[in-house]
Design a protein that fits this description.
The complex is a heterotrimer of chains A (about 100), B (about 170) and C (about 400).
Chain A lengths: L2 H21 L3 H26 L2 H31 L13
Helix pairs in contact in A: 1-2, 2-3
Chain B lengths: L1 H17 L3 H21 L3 H25 L13 H23 L12 H9 L1 H10 L3 H22 L4
Helix pairs in contact in B: 1-2, 2-3, 5-6
Chain C lengths: L2 H39 L15 H11 L10 H17 L7 E4 L3 E4 L3 E4 L4 E3 L7 H9 L2 H11 L3 H32 L4 H10 L3 H4 L1 H14 L11 H4 L9 H26 L17 H26 L7 H33 L3 H20 L8 H6 L1
Antiparallel strand pairs in C: 1-4, 2-3
The chains are: A mainly alpha (about 100), B mainly alpha (about 170), C mainly alpha (about 400).
Chain lengths: ~100, ~170, ~400
């Protein structure tokens, strides 16, 4: 039974993802950390699917579809930002502050 | 086996959030994703594992690398860690997370929800690895599935509009 | 250890060792065949000095690459520079593990003096690992092969390599989609994703190339793009980018890319043979489906080798016949032609299978009729200038 360990690993990965988002300033790395968090959630779903039936795996399927969509749009935004500002450091991205 | 891949996954994640160069970060993340795929196999989810490698490692991360290389961001700047305020906020949120996890660890899994051990692998043996998922995907979750396709379409349009210099 | 476990371990080890060594020899022969073939097509002789008809030339090349100096250009990212050839070498080798290459052998039961008794109940499947996810494994692992090229491009710190890496990442992602979609029709007909089941389904009915010609053409074209072969070898394009991603590589590291390329070609040839040409099935006879025997195994192995070899030759033939695409043409073909055609074809095949089950007609005649129409349409489309807009048409638009 790997449920406990798998959930623990999932929690650790999720925390690392959160830490990455909070600590880094490079937009693309922040983005990768978001993917890491999504994957941690996936791991939890798969681990629970082993206990509760295959529906959990279906959810992972949806998460992947959403992650793909998110990656496409997010990277397009990153490209647009870079063209506009020549940097991806989010501290310099304060356009809305006027 | 599980612990080996778990260690690889966590190590990869740790390296991913600490490396300076985005390319190195991306590669460590690939290692994490790949180890997660191996863990999925150990958790009776072979189909999801294949999808994980195909979609995450094979497509999404290549896309990341493509953008990093296109913008020529490969050589990282000196450091992009946040200052002290950021770290304090991170620490506070981390402590909160640890507390939540602690509470969750103490509470046991609701027992009536548990299948007897090995049910999923037995079902997979009987129906085939893919059939297990497709059954539930195309019966119970048909509407979400269709909505996902709309979402993907919207994402494609959005990405093209954002990335194109002039339409 | 029980005799069963020992027998299983013995069978697995022997399979791995034999397949790996045969595979490496096949790769060597493939490089020889490429050079001799190209020479033949250009009215030259090609390498003919080392061994009979130059057959030992690959050995000499390998030896040379062992002894040459490993160069490390000044600005390379060293760990990644070393990792890149490995990343392209390993996926192309392990994908072959799930392809069944012959009819099963009979089980064995014998006793060795010191090691004791070995048994293997039932037939031994002639595939290194018959995974339940079969083809998905190949798609997943081959999608990793792009990392080798991208990393080589990036870590070399050279303009040409970088351009090659960028090109290959865009190209591989685009054509992977068409590759995956064209295989889905095969799944619909065979009803399973394991390759041994796909072969069995073709033995029961017809080779899928007769039922799914359009999918076959799509798969073939994407396979060329996935293996970076001419007409889609833009990542290395020696006329524009020197040799693209491996410009900075020398000696053994270059050798690895070289071997990886041919390993990928052989795997793709084997895959085409398995998916669309019946795998190890011998046509026009049902003898090969009988109970396992050594003769059947050998004969089917020969059939599989012939089919794979044919596609290997086809790869070489195409390389020395067709000119290279421009990059915008490549993207246009991938996204504006192959993707819609593949999606439409899945819909059509799905509807036909569903409709035939509903109405109760036999599936085969309907599919073959449909196939005739589809192939006619395909040939019409392939007719000059209809699939890809040339530069002039672009200017006019």
């Amino acid at each position: 039974m790997l449920l406990g360990p798998a959930l623990a690993v999932s929690a650790i990965l999720f925390s690392l993802g959160v830490a990455g988002v909070l600590l880094r300033r490079n937009a693309i790395i922040i983005f990768m950390c978001v993917e890491l968090m999504l994957n941690a959630a996936n791991l939890a779903f798969v681990a629970l699917a082993q206990q509760l039936g295959p529906d959990g795996q279906v959810i992972v399927f949806f998460v992947m579809a959403v992650a793909a969509a998110e990656a496409a749009v997010g990277l397009a935004i990153v490209l647009a930002i870079y063209r506009h500002k020549q940097t991806l450091d989010i501290q310099n991205l304060n356009l809305l502050r006027g | 086996m599980f612990w080996l891949f778990a260690a690889l996954a966590v190590g990869g994640a740790l390296m991913c959030i600490t490396r300076r160069s985005p390319v190195a970060s991306a590669l460590w993340l690939v290692q994490t994703l790949f180890s997660l795929a191996a863990i999925f196999v150990l958790l009776d989810a072979q189909f999801i594992a294949a999808l994980q490698v195909m979609v995450y490692a094979g497509a999404i991360m290549v896309l990341f690398l493509f953008v990093i290389m296109l913008l020529n961001l490969g050589r990282g700047s000196a450091t992009d860690m946040r200052g002290w305020t950021g770290r304090l906020v991170a620490l506070a949120l981390g402590l909160l997370l640890v507390t939540e996890l602690w509470v969750l660890v103490r509470s046991p899994l609701a027992s009536p929800l548990q299948l007897p051990a090995g049910t999923l692998s037995r079902v997979a043996q009987e129906q085939g690895v893919v059939a297990v998922i497709s059954d539930s995907l195309f019966r119970t979750y048909l509407v979400p599935f269709e909505v996902t396709s709309v979402l993907l379409l919207a994402a494609i349009v959005g990405a093209v509009v954002l990335a194109k210099r002039r339409l | 250890m029980t005799p069963d476990i020992k027998g299983f371990l013995l069978a697995a080890t022997v399979k791995i060792v034999v397949v790996f060594s045969v595979w490496m020899i096949a790769i060597m022969l493939a490089t020889w065949l490429e050079r001799r073939g190209s020479a033949f097509m250009q009215d030259r002789l090609g390498p003919n000095r080392v061994g009979p008809a130059g057959l030992l030339q690959p050995v000499a090349d390998g030896l040379k690459n062992f002894l040459k100096e490993e160069t490390w250009p000044k600005w390379v990212d060293q760990p990644l520079f070393l990792l890149a050839p490995l990343m392209s070498f390993i996926p192309s080798l392990i994908t072959f593990a799930v392809i069944p290459f012959a009819a099963p052998l009979p089980g064995f039961d014998f006793t060795l003096p010191l090691l004791g008794r070995f048994t293997y109940q039932g037939p031994i499947p002639m595939v290194v690992a018959d995974l339940p996810i079969g083809l998905l494994f190949i798609l997943a692992i081959s999608s990793l092969a792009v990392y080798g090229i991208v990393l080589a491009g990036w870590s070399s710190a050279s303009k040409y390599s970088m351009l090659g890496g960028i090109r290959s990442s865009a190209q591989m992602i685009s054509y992977e989609i068409a590759l995956g979609l064209s295989v889905i029709t095969v799944f619909i007909l065979s009803g399973n994703v394991t390759l041994s089941e796909v072969v069995a389904a073709q033995q029961r009915t017809v080779w899928f190339v007769l039922a799914l010609t359009v999918a076959f053409v799509l798969f073939l074209v994407s396979a060329f793009a996935e293996t970076n072969r001419l007409p889609f070898d833009l990542p290395e394009a020696e006329a524009e980018l020197v040799t693209g991603y491996h410009t900075e590589y020398s000696a053994m590291k270059f050798s690895m890319f070289y071997v990886a390329e041919y390993a990928a070609i052989l795997t793709m040839s084997a895959l085409i043979a398995t998916l669309f040409f019946g795998g190890w099935d011998i046509p026009f006879t049902r003898w090969d489906e009988g109970p396992p025997s050594v003769a059947r195994c050998a004969a089917t192995l020969l059939a599989f080798g012939t089919k794979t070899g044919f596609f290997l030759l086809f790869y070489i033939w195409v390389r020395w016949t067709l000119p290279r695409f421009r990059f915008d043409q490549l993207m246009e073909l991938g996204w504006k032609v192959m993707l819609p055609v593949a999606l439409g074809y899945i819909t059509v095949i799905g509807l036909v299978v569903w409709g035939a089950e509903r109405v109760g007609v036999a599936l085969a005649p309907v599919l073959i009729g449909l196939n005739l129409v589809a192939t006619a349409g395909l040939l019409w489309g392939l007719d000059r200038g209809r699939l890809l807009a040339g530069a002039r048409a672009r200017r006019a638009a």
